[in-house]
Amino acid sequence: MVPYLLKRLISLVLSLLAASVVIFLVLQIVPGDPASYMLGMNAQPETVEALRQQMGLNEPLAWRYLTWVAGLTHGDFGVSYTYKVPIGELIAQRLWVSLPLALYALLLSTLIALPIGIISAAKRNSAADYGIMGVTQLGIAVPNFWFAMLLVLLFSITLRWFSAGGFPGWNAGFFVALKALTLPAVALALPQASILARVMRSSLLDTLSEDYIRTARAKGLTQGQTLVRHAVRNAMIPVLTIIGLQFSFLLAGAIIIENVFYLPGLGRLVFQGITQRDLIVVQSVVMLLVFAVIVITFLVDMAYALVDPRLRSRG
To answer: Which domains does the chain have, with CATH numbers?
Structure first.
């Protein structure tokens, strides 16, 4: 188990270093002069030079990269050119929206997908199986932003059960804030639930064809007992992979949904940083999101070792 853990830790560190180099070079080199890009074509040379001094662009490229990485390790993300406040404060404020939204959507997706996938596999080639697979295919095909607009039309404009957008803040009360996140969470969860249900079904069908499943049935276990005691746990490894990837997507890829519902989350912060040419914000937030994705992947690998004893013995 320890060698397996060390290998994954080394992979995590190397992935973070590679990602930081790519993000830094893309945002510092590709636009040309970052100061000129941020201020626009009509900026005065004195203003551009002042911003270059402020951002440290006159220093060597390697020194700027090392300074940026050292700041990240201490929680110093720099100061936003647009908002004139530390980026760490902006991230902290927006994270209290994006993180609960991602967790809420992931919980809904898992609660919907796992029972549906198990039922579909248990009733393979039946009418229920074909119906479930048809609905999940539709869920994958429908864009989540279009589905979000349908939710707004039905539950906000027609039924008036939920607000059409905005976030009142957690100070307004837990259930009030959770209610504001419900429609965005559903819009994010249903397409992901469709993917997860299909993966659960496929993985469970592969497991049910194994010899030890037939042995368990021959010993007198019912189909339900065989599913619960043997099949589901062994079928969870690819499902854990998808759950980890989905959480990463929900945390880092909810830009469109956050804009549809006008939520002040990290996705909307990145969108605003791009439109306002605030490269300092974009660089820091994207690195934070990449860090979250890599750490989640590492945790999924650890979950593998807990679910599959073969990985522990192999380590």
So the answer is: 15-73 (no CATH), 87-314 (1.10.3720.10)
